[in-house]
Structure prediction request, 438 residues.
Amino acid sequence: MIKGAGILLILALSATLGFDAARRLRTNTRQLDRLLQLLNALKGELAFRHTPLAVAFSSLGERFFLPLFERIGEEIAAGSCPRDAFRTVVHQELSEPEVYSALSDLFGSIGSGDLMAELNRIDYAVSRISVSYEETRKKEERYAGMCRSFGILGGLLLALIFV
Amino acid sequence: MKGLQQEVFVFFHPEVQQLLRQLSPDGIEEIRLRVGRPLVVHTADRLYTYRNFIPSMEQIQEILQKMSGHSYYAFVDEICKGFFTVPGGHRVGVAGTPVLEGGRIINMKHITSLNVRIAREVKDCALPLLPYLPANLLILSPPGFGKTTVLRDLARLAGGSLKVGLIDERGEVCAAANGEPQFDIGKMTDTLHLCPKSIGAEILLRGASPQIIMMDELSSQDIPTVRSIFSAGVKVVATAHGDHAADTLRRLEMSHCFDYAVILGRHRIKEVISL
Prediction:
């Protein structure tokens, strides 16, 4: 009875670890996907509505479930420049250094030029983040299933060893 | 409405904010910054020159960025016309080097001057004009005498009982921030914010069935628009630069269009002339 419970516990634990690793990979891909959607929507806000950055970031952050951008919008509305707002909100580097670098460059210059300049800046950031997105998506495709399988099989192996 | 401190002073260098705080906020009419020249503040009765604050090009640029909410692109069209409006309805005039393309200004580089004109709401200042409505009124005065203030109050008063359409081409009359008017412009007043008069008149006539259409700063380019409103049987209340009714109407080629000309003195209605 106790042995059975132990086996189940080992299996549950290792499977959870495997599924959690897979979930983290999936979350990264989804976050980057949302970020790209947000930046494309930002282009629309700027091009067709001339929405000021504070309003655009706040509303798009809420729409795309990226609270980081909502906070950046609030900081800009309070009088910070986009670069300072980004530095205040993003204290440490994001999990993807290339994404951090692209966003840092974007926030370092956005808001100071005319519409064409702003749209080009966003396009450049989108192209850089797209590369990271593709890599993350491939990583998820390659490793997410593997993590789940390893979790279950590793648990089985451990259970067999202990039995 | 917030105070001048939050609406205007906040854009300036702390040193300038300190200088401005020493003046009575009700008295300030204009704040002028020019590259390499001292800060000048105009009040109703005095001109203050602060020689210990001489802005550099970078400081002007920084102030401009703050005023635009770090969204310069959102104001380029207005800046190309020589001014933009900040929340609170305060108009910021800009001067610099226009960038031309095909004879049209597409941007402004090397901005060297900023002139902040403080907007004020003076309730009931247009009360003497209310009995004349609905009628075609032309409000005349030289710049800085309070035409926009009178028009705003007239929209508020008339909008209490008449259907009023307001074309706020420069964004000064209702001072909308993110689309929401910051001044009281009347219960039944429909506003088109930052909309050219020619387009705005068409939209209002089709969609809002107004009894009166109000517009600020009429120029000779707006004559066809005003005539189209008259021909639709709708009254027009407009402001224009000038201090002599006959001369201004002749300049605008609108001698027989308006019923009354309202001549303003400094922040008061001087006379109403039947045309």
Summary: The two ends of chain B are 37 Å apart (CA to CA). Chain B touches chain A through 14 residues (CB under 8 Å). The helical segments of chain B are 4-7, 14-21, 57-67, 76-80, 147-158, 197-207, 223-231, 245-251. The longest strand of chain B covers residues 104-117.
